[in-house]
Amino acid sequence: MKYTTLFFDADDTLLDFQECERSALESSFQKHGLIFNEEIRKQYSHINQELWSFFERGEITKPQILATRFRRLFSELSIEGVSDTFERDYQYFLTVNGCTIPGAIKLCRELSKDFELYILTNGVASTQKGRFEDSGLLPYLRGVFVSEDIGFQKPDREYFEAVLKQVAEQDKSRILMIGDSLNSDILGGIGAGLPTCWYNPKHKENDTAEKPDFEVANYEELRQIIYQE
């Protein structure tokens, strides 16, 4: 087979981040006696995605994300007096919620018989590792590389260089980077000299300069790419 090693992104590639986020937000709002609804989830998600995109471009730090996102949300909602523990509570509820995209466990179980699987993810180390412990995916993975532990984040070249030093396969042409983010997974993979596969189940348009080697809309299409000779 063409590949020996598969680098997977975590959120929205294997883990269902939207559901994990919704559940953690709902639990946090309930704990603090606040009303939660879908509009609030969308508002928070917009803020959070914007801040993480700034982080991936190196414009802000991870501590700034954690210190800013709920402060900004509550300011926009005109909610005052929320405890400073809200972020910590949210992190806890997110950590114990490792909901996967349907079919992800089966996919990893099957692929682990023929390939070495690794997770490459940006995020808070304790949160991401906790989610994978809860997800049921860990038995099929050789390792989980979180940006907070590495000291760099996707798409930084230094992040990928650090990861590549810790895997057995050193022929980059035999390592496939798979992820849903063009600006993080695909840009980073290309910069590191890896073949890339854009996981795009929502059929988004590619409005970036990044050109992945492959694009798939579901796990079955991904299997076909991975097992090609």
TrEMBL record:
Source organism of this protein record: Acetivibrio ethanolgignens
Protein name, as recorded: Noncanonical pyrimidine nucleotidase, YjjG family
Alphabetical list of NCBIfam families matching this protein: HAD-SF-IA-v1, YjjG_YfnB
Domain of life: Bacteria
UniProt GO molecular function: 5'-nucleotidase activity
Lineage: Bacteria, Bacillati, Bacillota, Clostridia, Eubacteriales
InterPro entries noted in UniProt: HAD-like_sf (IPR036412), HAD-SF_hydro_IA (IPR006439), HAD-SF_hydro_IA_YjjG/PynA (IPR011951), HAD_sf (IPR023214), PGP-like_dom2 (IPR023198), Pyrimidine_5'-ntase_YjjG (IPR052550)
